[in-house]
Design the sequence.
């Protein structure tokens, strides 16, 4: 008789305990609920990243028009400071952290506007949501909207 057959020859369920995927033989709904929460958060993160990327592009155009002498880090600091409501120290820190995070690996290069935007969005979104990380690939969303050349 196969191991899953009972004494009377009827099929019985074997309790295998936790399967490691959040579902147990008891039919726990914890994993599907968490999956749905993560999906909803991912959609919200992507929507936020698109909106903020568009806002950053508008500010980029505005600042380039108003201050054509600015370029590179100085330009990015000015844009981020405006995004943050006029906090130049925090803006400089964000640009520096973006450079450390995006422009140093896998090869060292100059920081790009899209790097700075991605870093600011990730930081602001994670801080606002009080989470350990974003649920979506924010850098990919930003890269889809902000040209590499910026």
Sequence:
């Amino acid at each position: 008789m196969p191991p899953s057959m009972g004494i009377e020859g009827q099929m019985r369920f074997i309790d295998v305990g936790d399967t490691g995927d959040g579902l147990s033989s008891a039919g726990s709904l914890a994993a599907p609920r968490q999956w749905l929460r993560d999906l909803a958060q991912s959609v919200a993160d992507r929507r936020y990243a698109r909106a903020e990327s568009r806002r950053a592009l508008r500010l980029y155009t505005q600042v380039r028009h108003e201050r054509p002498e600015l370029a590179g880090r100085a330009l990015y600091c000015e844009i981020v400071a405006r995004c943050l409501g006029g906090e130049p120290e925090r803006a400089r820190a964000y640009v520096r952290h973006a450079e450390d995070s995006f422009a140093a690996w896998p090869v060292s290069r100059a920081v790009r506007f899209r790097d700075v935007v991605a870093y600011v969005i990730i930081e602001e979104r994670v801080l606002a949501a009080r989470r350990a990380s974003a649920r979506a690939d924010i850098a990919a969303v930003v890269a889809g909207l902000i040209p590499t050349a910026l």
About this structure: Residues 30-145 form one domain. The first helix runs from residue 30 to 66.
